[in-house]
């Protein structure tokens, strides 16, 4: 049922798997036992053999037995569940902390030295703590191989921690339905040898892939990294926000402070829409769905995005 090769993926695998197998074993036993008993009773006490019903009186000993046994079994399941869960809340003092941000519909990870990535890089055999932040709606960070899942609630401090025991790439995704593109909110956990991670961590040079010299290529990379294309299409189709196809330089009808007016989509408008997304809402779209990127994108970044938008002609 579980892959033995992944048994050492994190320090929580054994406890969670043991708890699961105990609970699964107990419910499987009773599923088979109760079903078999029901089938036996159907044939043993069918109407043709017992045409006249008989009154059955209570049995105190039987009552005690079927009260005590389930109670013991529930406590056994609770014990294994608690022993698997309790260590997940006991974070080592020397844990390496990473801020993990969930927003519609992408993940971003911020390291203490200022690095930001859309993939979670962690060292092997070192305690890692993820401070979880939801910027908009409920999300849930799930790493199946590590047997870890934790909800992200806006405005509430949440965390998870683990010690990765195996190098490699592991799936990470959101398991709380968070809107239209929830299914695309996926990324990876990359577990690296500790010395390799340290080299990666202290390397302050650019780690982004080589960008093509094609106009708008860097802008495309920026919008992909920040999850912009989850809400804005490039082909003219309508999703959460206005399509970017042919948008730059076009006259749009917007609502500003309760007033409807015409607005040309120029550089100033794009910058303000990214920093203050609720100031001017394009007609036909809803307010409050986009958060400010003031702390995420510089004006230079937005300039590259604008260059990319200019390539998306009708």
From TrEMBL:
Keywords: Copper, Electron transport, Heme, Iron, Membrane, Metal-binding, Respiratory chain, Translocase, Transmembrane, Transmembrane helix, Transport
Membrane topology: Multi-pass membrane protein
Top-rank taxon, per record: Bacteria
Cofactor note: Binds a copper A center.
EC number, UniProt record: 7.1.1.9
UniProt domain Cytochrome oxidase subunit II copper A binding: residue ranges: 93-203
Location, primary (coarse class): membrane
CDD domains given in the database record: CuRO_HCO_II_like_2
Protein's name in the database: Cytochrome c oxidase subunit 2
Organism per entry: Paralabilibaculum antarcticum
Gene: coxB
């Amino acid at each position: 049922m579980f892959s033995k090769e992944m048994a050492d993926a994190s320090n929580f695998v054994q406890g969670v798997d043991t708890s699961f197998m105990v609970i699964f074993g107990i419910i499987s036993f009773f599923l088979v036992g109760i079903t078999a008993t029901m089938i036996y009773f159907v044939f043993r006490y069918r109407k043709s053999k017992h045409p006249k019903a008989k009154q059955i009186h209570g049995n105190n000993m039987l009552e005690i037995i079927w009260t005590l046994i389930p109670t013991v079994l529930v406590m056994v399941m609770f014990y294994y569940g608690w022993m698997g869960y309790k260590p997940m809340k006991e974070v080592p003092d020397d844990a390496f902390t990473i801020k993990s941000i969930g927003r519609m519909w992408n993940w971003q990870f911020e390291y203490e030295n200022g690095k930001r990535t859309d993939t979670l890089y962690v060292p092997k055999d070192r305690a890692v703590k993820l401070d979880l932040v939801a910027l908009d709606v409920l999300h849930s960070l799930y790493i199946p191989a590590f047997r870890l899942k934790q909800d992200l609630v806006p405005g509430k401090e949440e965390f998870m921690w683990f010690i990765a025991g195996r190098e490699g790439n592991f799936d990470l995704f959101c398991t709380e339905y968070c809107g239209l593109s929830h299914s695309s909110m996926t990324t990876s956990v990359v577990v690296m040898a500790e010395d390799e991670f340290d080299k990666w961590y202290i390397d302050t040079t650019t780690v982004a892939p080589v960008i093509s010299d094609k106009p708008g290529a860097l802008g495309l990379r920026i919008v992909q990294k920040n999850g912009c294309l989850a809400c804005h299409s490039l082909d003219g189709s309508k999703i959460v926000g206005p399509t970017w196809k042919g948008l730059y330089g076009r006259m749009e009808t917007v609502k500003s402070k309760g007033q409807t007016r015409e607005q040309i989509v120029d550089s100033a408008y794009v910058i303000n829409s990214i920093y203050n997304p609720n100031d001017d809402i394009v007609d036909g779209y809803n307010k409050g769905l986009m958060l400010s990127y003031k702390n995420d994108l510089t004006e230079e970044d937005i300039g590259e995005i604008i260059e990319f938008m200019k390539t998306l002609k009708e």
